[in-house]
Design brief:
The complex is a heterotrimer of chains A (267), B (300) and C (371). Chain A is mostly helical and 267 residues long. Chain A is 79% helix and 0% strand. The longest helix of chain A has 35 residues. Chain B is mainly alpha-helical and 300 residues long. Chain B has one domain: MetI-like fold, CATH 1.10.3720.10. Chain B contains 13 helices and four strands. Chain C has two domains: 236 residues, Rossmann fold; 110 residues, OB fold (Dihydrolipoamide Acetyltransferase, E2P). Chain C is built from nine helices and 20 strands. A six-stranded mixed β-sheet of chain C has the order 6-7-8-3-9-10, sandwiched between helices. Chain C is elongated. The chains are: A mainly alpha (267), B mainly alpha (300), C alpha+beta (371). The interface between A and B is large, with 82 and 79 residues.
Chain lengths: 267, 300, 371
């Protein structure tokens, strides 16, 4: 690329980043500004909104519940989806397309629709199993399917599982060994990506929790918002920053892991 | 299949005398199928069944309600809202994606932007609504700052808590979603195509008009469809922002579900949900067609 | 000026036009702290095919891209047909380029690809179609005109790329390792094709490659490059038999390194006195670079020992010729002889080598001083 074009491109990129950077950072900055406002017009900035998050038991419950749900959903997703995806690619290739279709279905059947069907199911669960908010994980697992499937699929395509498994089997490894000790270590960045998506989706989920009358993080923020805007906005800022850094951390972790192992191909 | 698989094959006698071969390997997929059967297909079936159920058995009454003016207008509002936010998101998002794609593939800027887009596209709608309230709400940061400089942000009344405001807020997660969905297509553009165009006498305009434009169009349209479906299905932001009435379909559904009248309204919600599914399903099919065409031309 | 002067371009191009001379004068290109190209001077005569040969990183591709205008030079000039194009953008330089791979537009048929440059020049639809058809016929692909890139084999794609580059009748044809991504068999076929087309059309051509066999087979002159500089420029026979530097001798073809001593304008190697290419070489220890085909074999008579005696430790059958590795005790030597002759010296047999008295190149690198 010649110099003139490179300069024009650089200018273009600068404009794009500045304009869009402002557009995206302004509301977040505004949230921080709002949450740190003092009581009167010329009061000094205060962090009481942030600190009072911990003193509201309902809020703390909601936060804890959401974090627990994030963990349970991630683990559940890994336990259910990962083995299935590897297994069918190795042993039942005819099922790969149908399973893919199933995993992508929640994109066509959005949460607002699914929740209508969840309502009677959760009525039954509440009566016969448990009325804990953690039961939401069952629904959340379905909601994260499309994102996690894509992330894991990208990781699996980068690894030649056919060749690796045949080599391992010829050396006497069991199918379990092949899956856990050969394939999974080679897709560590895909696995961490999938978990990170799980966490992001679960922490940001509102629709299902709200319409099934559970109080998770987002529902709590919403309820609080009508009364005490500052605290709810403070909480929103915290959750946003938390997820962002979590994502960044996991993306660096995934990259470091795959680089250390000499990496399956980077996507 | 290897010899190992063959030896695990069992022959099962069908009731009508035919023979069905099931390999025990299929059982490995069973937990997954069971789970999705229970928590994905069952709810869907319940929605479909509910849409056609009434207090006295199967009925079309729920669907008939969909032709009521306030329902029709809710659907129209949803469609317009989705189309506008998808279009703005697609155009702006593709520009941002282009800026990122032309940078260094391993650079920190790209990783930052991708992570940022990942978060923002999943930005809990509630948080987003509040963020905009904090920015351009009546006590918002921008409003107050402009006021201090003698400018009124809302000369004709506050529009944040209306469909207009909602559309603006939707672009906030549509743009990042576009970046995520469209970037792979941009990465698939080979530098040789640009260079070949130049050696053949074509400049920037020719390149976009004859080469990059046509190549990216299927991916762009597909991404637009995805953005449309995403906006159409969104609920949380609207719920947090517009607490009255059901100007869009998701709000109608939530109103029907929380209503105290009981089963009747639950079935109406199912009918609304079915309507939504039909629209989104059509969009998804169109998207799949475009994806196939784009994947043929633009290698990963 | 070269022997090929103002030659009318072939009939398949319709009408006549003189071929253009291309001059690279003092071209420099620097990336940060690396100098990719350090003052390159080459004149490509009208209608000539010059191959730039060298290992990766030697600057050959950079030089090509500077001629094309895909990168800006940090110093020097590019002159095409008397015009200084150094500051012109690529689209105005009137060059045609064939890339290593992936350059065909995937959403267009072969014909549309070939016609693309004509479209940029606002040629009408009918004429475009006709000329594209002619070009495809020139490269032997008229039956595939309506196929898309992904339906064509690698070799066919490169032929379409060639037709596309030539369709606009450029002043110079630039090829960036066009055969490197292809299978070995396709490579040699296509290599001859390219040469045939280039000759028929008579276009001045610059061809970049890292494959020395390719360069020697296809070019009128070969320029061997290393680390941004031109080591030697000349006809293939000179490059091969009269390498100017040890690098050229070892990069092009196989070389044996035999220790010896230079005295009085010749080098003593194992008792044989070989003439030198550079007769004014100062005396002293040196390493002579000898081609495998300049070494001959005879069976060793019983009891024959000496610096020219050895044992055959490996035989590689290469079809018409065979390559034998001979262990001389203190070093090994590669010998290339017709296969029929090699049969007389199976593995393990004792042989006596002789060196043909061709002028050789010596290098001081690795030479061991006499005590």
């Amino acid at each position: 690329m010649n110099r003139r074009r490179r300069r024009r491109l650089a200018a273009f990129k600068a404009v794009v980043y500045v304009v869009l950077g402002l557009f995206f950072l302004l509301p977040i900055a505004a949230m921080v500004e709002f949450a740190t406002r003092g009581v009167g017009i010329s009061s000094p900035r205060t962090l009481t909104a942030f600190t009072s998050i911990g003193s509201d038991p309902e809020l703390v419950d909601a936060i804890t519940a959401s974090l627990e749900l994030a963990v349970i959903t991630s683990l559940g997703m890994l336990a259910l989806l990962l083995p299935t995806m590897i297994w069918i690619r190795l042993r039942v290739p005819q099922m790969v397309r149908p399973v893919e279709l199933v995993c992508l279905t929640p994109l066509t059947i959005p949460a607002i629709v699914l929740v209508v069907g969840f309502a009677p199911i959760y009525n039954w669960i509440e009566i016969n199993v448990s009325d804990s908010i953690l039961m939401l994980a069952l629904a959340y697992l379905v909601l994260v399917l499309p994102y996690c499937y894509r992330a894991l699929d990208a990781g699996l395509s980068a690894v030649d599982i056919r060749t690796l498994s045949e080599a391992a089997r010829s050396l006497g490894a069991s199918w379990a060994t092949v899956m856990w000790r050969i394939i999974v270590p080679n897709m560590s960045s895909a696995v961490s990506n999938a978990c990170l998506l799980c966490v992001a989706v679960v922490l940001g989920e509102f629709t299902v929790a709200n319409l099934l009358n559970f109080e998770n993080l987002q529902v709590a923020i919403s309820i609080l918002g009508t009364g005490n805007a500052s605290v709810s906005i403070a909480l929103a800022v915290v959750s946003l920053v938390f997820v962002f850094f979590f994502l960044l951390l996991l993306s660096f972790l995934g990259r470091a892991l795959s680089r250390r192992r000499g990496g399956a191909a980077r996507a | 299949m290897t010899a190992v698989a063959v030896s695990e094959t069992e022959y099962v006698r069908r009731p009508l005398g035919g023979r069905l071969r099931i390999s025990s390997a299929w059982l490995g997929a069973a937990p997954f199928l069971l789970y999705t059967g229970l928590f994905l297909f069952l709810p869907t079936v319940l929605v479909a069944v509910g849409a056609f159920s009434g207090p006295h058995g199967p009925t079309l009454a729920n669907l008939a309600q969909l032709s009521r003016p306030y329902v029709v207008s809710a659907f129209l509002n949803s469609l317009v809202l989705s189309a506008v936010s998808a279009s703005v998101g697609a155009v702006v998002g593709s520009v941002l994606a282009y800026a990122v794609a032309t940078g260094s593939p391993d650079g920190i800027l790209r990783r930052l932007v991708t992570a940022f887009c990942g978060v923002l596209s999943q930005f809990g709608g509630v948080t987003l609504a509040f963020a905009f309230i904090a920015t351009i709400g009546t006590e918002g940061f921008i409003v107050i700052w402009l006021q201090q400089h003698g400018i009124r942000f809302y000369p004709n009344g506050v529009w944040l808590f209306s469909l207009t405001g909602l559309t603006l807020i939707y672009t906030y997660f549509e743009i990042p979603l576009m970046v995520i969905v469209f970037m792979p297509a941009l990465d698939g553009i080979r530098p040789q195509w640009r260079e070949a165009t130049e050696t053949l006498g074509g400049g920037t305009w020719h390149y976009w008009r004859h080469v990059a434009g046509p190549l990216l169009m299927p991916a762009f349209l597909g991404a637009w469809l995805l953005l449309f479906a995403n906006a159409f299905s969104a609920y949380a932001t609207a719920a947090a922002l517009l607490d009255i009435g059901g100007v869009i379909v998701p709000l109608q559904i939530s109103r029907a579900l929380s209503s105290e009248v009981g089963l009747d309204q639950a079935n109406f919600a199912a009918a609304l949900a079915l309507g939504m599914v039909v629209i989104v399903a059509i969009i998804t099919l169109l998207y799949a067609r475009l994806q196939r065409r784009s994947a043929r031309w633009l290698p990963r | 000026m070269g022997a090929l002067d103002a030659r009318p371009i072939g009939a398949s191009w319709g009408g006549s036009r003189s071929a253009a001379e291309v001059r690279l004068e003092g071209l420099r290109r620097v990336y940060g702290s690396t100098t990719a190209l350090d003052g390159l001077d080459i004149t490509i005569h009208a209608g000539e095919l010059v191959a730039l040969l060298g290992p990766s990183g030697c600057g050959k591709t950079t030089a090509l891209r500077l001629v094309a205008g895909l990168e800006d030079a940090d110093g020097g000039r590019v002159v095409i047909d008397g015009r200084d194009v150094t500051h012109l953008p690529t689209s105005r330089r009137d060059s045609g380029m064939v890339f290593q791979a992936y350059s065909l537009f995937p959403h267009m048929t072969a014909r549309e690809n070939v016609a693309f440059g004509l479209r940029m020049r606002k040629v009408g639809v009918a004429e475009r179609r006709q000329r594209a058809g002619e070009m495809l016929e020139l490269v032997g692909l008229s039956t595939q005109a309506d196929r898309y890139a992904h339906q064509l084999s690698g070799g066919q794609q490169q032929r379409v790329a060639l037709a596309r580059a030539l369709a606009i009748r450029p002043s110079v044809l630039l090829l960036d390792e066009p055969l490197s991504a292809l299978d070995a068999r396709v490579r040699s076929q296509l290599r001859d094709e390219i040469r045939r087309v280039q000759r028929e059309v008579g276009i001045t051509t610059l061809f970049v490659t890292h494959d020395q066999e390719e360069a020697l087979a296809i070019a009128d002159r070969v320029g061997v490059m290393r680390a941004g500089r031109l080591e030697q420029l000349g006809p293939p026979t000179s490059i091969y038999s009269q390498p100017a530097t040890p690098f050229v001798a070892e990069f092009v073809g196989l070389t044996n390194r035999l220790a010896g001593v230079v005295t009085g304008g010749a080098v003593d190697v194992r008792g044989i006195r070989l003439p030198l290419i550079a007769t004014d070489t100062p005396d002293g220890p040196a390493v002579a670079l000898v081609r495998p085909e300049a070494v001959s074999l005879a069976p060793a008579l019983d009891g024959f020992n000496g610096p020219l005696s050895g044992t055959v430790i490996a035989v590689s059958f290469l079809g018409a010729v065979s390559r034998l590795t001979i262990d001389l005790g203190d070093t090994t030597v590669l010998v290339q002889v017709p296969t029929a002759e090699a049969a007389a010296h199976p593995g393990g047999s004792r042989v006596r080598i002789a060196l043909r008295l061709d002028p050789v190149l010596i290098t001081r690198e690795g030479a061991q001083g006499r005590g």
